[in-house]
Specification:
Helix content: 40-55%
Distance between the termini: 7 Å
GO molecular function: 3'-5' DNA helicase activity; hydrolase activity
Pfam family, one: RecQ_Zn_bind
Shape: globular
Low-confidence stretches: 179-192
CATH class of one domain: Mainly Alpha
Protein name: ATP-dependent DNA helicase RecQ
Keywords: ATP-binding, Helicase, Hydrolase, Nucleotide-binding
Enzyme class: hydrolase
């Protein structure tokens, strides 16, 4: 059983930032991000776990909640090519947040310092949200097309499986994100008290 709330992830990230900077913090951040990615996965849970442990691409299990109730899909080849190309053009040295900023054409000093505002891919995905591109990249990780190098601050790096996608040799379906952070008052109205709050609190502690 998995209990997940995006607000909890934000709180955990704030707690993590209070710890001393260094390799241990990088490792803990990587683990936290992986946990969040698993909870928000739009890909077979089995594939997510296997790719996290470096097992490579496998067939979907057919038994997890994602397989039994698959999300709506769309032709994701163009989005995947934008994301993969951006990762490659920044020399596979940066994490997800930075790659998304380049894709969306963020106007900040760090991007200008590296000259990435001059890249062809800069701003190619500005019409889509930050959350959309995070979902795309997470799915590419879960599908084994991208890996996160924990030794390099979780830098995104391409795998061999990314090449045919970049060339457009294979079709690629991606899932439309279906997890949206709810405002507290919306959650209160939605659940309305029709559950045992004490039991729920105990179960969350066990999770």
């Amino acid at each position: 059983m998995l209990f997940y709330d995006p607000a909890d992830m934000a709180w955990l990230r704030r707690c993590l930032e209070e710890k001393p900077a260094g390799q241990l913090q990088d490792i803990e951040r990587h683990k936290l991000n992986a946990m969040g990615a698993f909870a928000e996965a739009q890909t077979c849970r089995r594939l997510v776990l296997l790719n996290y442990f470096g097992e490579g691409r496998q067939e979907p299990c057919g038994n997890c909640d994602i397989c039994l109730d698959p999300p709506k899909q769309y032709d994701g080849l163009n989005d995947a090519q934008i994301a993969l190309s951006t990762i490659g053009r920044v020399n596979q040295r940066f994490g997800m947040g930075y790659v998304v900023e380049v894709i969306r054409g963020a106007n900040n000093q760090r991007i200008r310092d590296f000259g990435h505002d001059k890249l062809k891919v800069y701003g190619m995905g500005r019409e889509k949200s930050h959350e959309h591109w995070v979902s795309v990249i997470r799915q590419l990780i879960h599908l084994g097309l991208v890996m996160q190098n924990i030794a390099q601050h979780s830098a995104l790096q391409l795998t061999d499986a990314a090449r045919p996608v970049l060339r457009g040799d294979v079709p690629l379906k991606l899932a439309v994100p279906r997890i949206v952070a709810l405002k507290p008052r919306v959650m209160q109205k939605s659940f309305g008290g029709n559950y045992d709050r004490k039991l729920f609190a105990k179960l969350r502690k066990l999770a």
